[in-house]
Design a protein that fits this description.
The chain has 223 residues and is of the alpha+beta class. Helices cover 31% and strands 28% of the residues. It has helices at residues 2-47, 109-120, 160-166, 197-200, and strands spanning 71-76, 84-87, 93-96, 100-103, 129-135, 138-144, 150-154, 174-185, 188-194, 215-220. The longest helix has 46 residues, at 2-47. It starts with a helix and ends with a strand. 18% of the residues are buried.
Amino acid sequence: MMQNIKRMWDDRQLQDTGTGCHKRALESSSFRSFAFLIAAALAFASCQTPPPPLPNPPGPKTAVRLSPGDSIKVAYADESVPDQTQKIRRDGKVSLPFIGEVTAAGKRLMDFQHELVNRYEGQIENNEVLVTLESGSGHVIVSGFAHKPGKIDFDRPKTVYQVIMEAGGATDYGSLSNVHLTRMINGEQRTEVINLRPTVRGKPTGPKYVQDGDVIYISRSWF
């Protein structure tokens, strides 16, 4: 009787041991499969070709283009015409003596100045004018994992890094190595991926300047 009970106990222990080993084997197999999927996903992501740099990026000396809301001053060489300081209207136009309404928005200062010189020819004795920008501003939208996402205004050349820092920098979940800069170029939205991690670490890097209407998106960090 005791021998039968002992035999039954030993058989049950063997069954339990086999079940435990099978369970651990399944868990180990599942973990390996999960790790393989993660590695494959990272390898696939690393193989994807990042978008090329945006063409003709603006720089610190990029010619200013006038926009609605900018204040400009038109100084006349002809002393009979008083100088004009006007704010460009929402329709992009200003109203000037003798020639009436003129579209200023979207034009470079020098181009607009040449246009006025041509328009004033024959209208006044001395048609030379000087156009200067009294005040103007652009804006950039910062979104994604930034501490203070929203609109950032600027009135002088500013880099992507400066704009992000003005937005409070990236959150703990944001990745400065995966920043998307989107810009409207010839009627199309174009995006460039920028890695700002070397800049944060103090390494010399070439600055990326923003321009009016840009959208900056800080992607999520997965590590």
